[in-house]
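Troubleshooting log. The previous structure file for this entry was overwritten by mistake, so regenerating from the original sequence record. Sequence copied from the archived sheet and checked twice against the printout by T.R.
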Amino acid sequence: MYTCSKQPHGPDVLVVGEALIDVVNSPEVVTTLGVDGSLLMTPHGSVQVPAFPSLVVDTIGAGDSYMAALFCGLLARGTHGPAHQVQETPGRTAAAAAAITVSRKGAAPPTADELSAWRQ
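Regenerated output below.
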C-alpha cells in the first residue's frame, strides 16, 4: 500500500493514485484530504470517505491515528478483496479515529471502546 497526504484536491489526486497503482504496482493507494476525508484507490476503483465533523483542538497525531485504524481494518479484512464496500468500512473507522484525535489536545489516539462508540 502506498499512502500520501495533503495532496492537491480534484482530478490530480486520481491521476497520481492511478499512476502509483500502475507504476509502483501498489494494490492500494490511500490519500488523506484533511477536512475533505480520504480517497482509497485500488486497480478496481476508488471510494471517497468523508471526514467526520469534529471540534478541532489539535491536529497532532490525526494522520497517525487515521493510518493505524486503517491498517487494523485492512488487516481484519483479510483476503476478502478490495471491493468498494470492503474498503469503505476501514476508511470510515480511520476517519472516526482521526476525528477523535483532533478533538483533544496532544497526540492522543482513541481507544477501541471510543472507536466503537463513535461509529454507532
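The chain has one domain: 2-119. Archived copy saved in two places this time.
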